[in-house]
Amino acid sequence: MNNRLILLCFLVLYFVVFRYVFIQLNDYSITCKVFGVYSSIPANDLHVIACSMECLRKGMDIQSKEVNDLCGGYFNYTRFARLLVYTGIMDSHTKIIAIVLIILYFFVLFRFIGEIDVFGLIVYIILLYSPALMLLIERVNIDMPIFIALYISLYFLRRNKSAISALIILFVSFIKLYPICALSMYLNKNFKNNIKILIFTLLAYLLYIFLIRGEFTAIYNLTGRGLEYSYGAQIFIDSMYPFLKGWGVTRYVPFSLEQFHVLFFLMALLMVSLGVSMGLRQQINDEDTVHIDGLRVGAGIYIGTFLIGNNWVYRLCFLLFTVPQILKWCKKQKAMRSLSIIALMCITVYIYNDYWAIRMLVNFTLLFYAKELAAWFLLFYYSYAFSLTIPFSTRSLFSPGTTFKATVYEPPP
């Protein structure tokens, strides 16, 4: 039997069991908690958008507390996202839009991963149905249509329609700022041919950032943040700072929390620089496949969002773009096999870290340090893996005359 079909069967089984538990408990919130998905209203993030657009058509301030109380959350997107008001979207449309988005999400995901072996099947079962990634499905967060859009962008790039691909990335970056990191997919063998498109896209994005610079404070203040269900450069110090103050450490290290944020941002940049410098010294002999491009997309977004400092854990869904190539590397010898296996373990540690069943078995402090260690290792790994995939021809454009060492990783006999 096709392993992707088995994976689909597990998906159906997951929702059947979820429905059964819901019927038995007759409480949606408690049912979600049983599966490690902490939520109380189905498709709540989509509901907030649809409800906010409905309020906007009535002339209400969608960033006001009144609308927040009415819709169950603040509309924390840029003004460009308000163009959704012209689509006629209403709160009553939430259910049908959610169903369509979830179907499209799994369709593009199953299409992207391609054929998988038994090891791949086990990995995808562990990852896809984890509490962290199922939270994305439950909330129908904006990251879901962005995931779909980036797959479409990747599709056009593979068919040498780079302008359309870049426009898609630019469009979704006008709604949420981080998807611009997906331009990392352009660092392929055709980079020289696409450099004008890349420059135009970046300039258009920077112009947009300049025009909306006054909105950043409001968006930042309206965006909810967490420590337990989040990842990023700020998570460790945000979690430890209250303890440092309680222990009196801050009297001897007189840094404010904001200064610590800058320090950890610089540490993250150093980690990225280390990974990139190591990766650029060598290269693998893999062909420039769609899965290599997918790794560039997922790695670029993980690095970019990690540097931002604080992201909800469902944003790790973009790491699914990297998994097919990681699975391929796991079958190879030498460094990439070991590092890739560790990377899969780190992803698993992170997306299951907040599951109540795990916390009953493992000490909370140990889980916290394991999660942070996993997150920072993944920052190094994706920096290294991303730079490793940049072709010699593209590297030579930045460092003419430089000789690179080619490291060939052959599959085991």
Could you explain how this protein is built, in words?
- This protein is mostly helical and 413 residues long.
- The chain has one domain.
- 65% of the residues lie in helices and 1% in strands.
- It contains 19 helices and two strands.
- The chain has helices at residues 3-25, 28-34, 44-57, 65-71, 94-113, 118-128, 131-139, 143-158, 162-175, 191-211, 216-222, 235-246, 257-280, 290-308, 323-330, 334-352, 356-361, 364-388, 392-398; strands spanning 230-231, 311-312.
- The chain has a two-stranded antiparallel sheet with strand order 1-2.
- Helix 1 crosses helix 2 (28-34), helix 8 (143-158) runs antiparallel to helix 14 (290-308) and helix 15 (323-330) packs across helix 16.
- The longest helix is centred in the last third of the chain and has 25 residues, at 364-388.
- The radius of gyration is 22 Å and the shape is globular.
- It starts with a helix and ends in a 15-residue tail after the last helix.
- Residues 408-413 have low confidence and may be disordered.
- Mean of residue pLDDT? 89
Structural class label = mainly alpha
Largest sheet: 2 strands, antiparallel
Amino- and carboxy-terminal Cα gap: 26 Å
Q: Using only CA atoms, what is the Rg?
A: 22 Å
List key phrases describing it.
disordered C terminus; 1% strand; single chain; two-stranded antiparallel sheet; 413 residues; mainly alpha
Q: What is the topological layout?
A:
Layout (H helix, E strand, L loop, with lengths): L2 H23 L2 H7 L9 H14 L7 H7 L22 H20 L4 H11 L2 H9 L3 H16 L3 H14 L15 H21 L4 H7 L7 E2 L3 H12 L10 H24 L9 H19 L2 E2 L10 H8 L3 H19 L3 H6 L2 H25 L3 H7 L15
Antiparallel strand pairs: 1-2
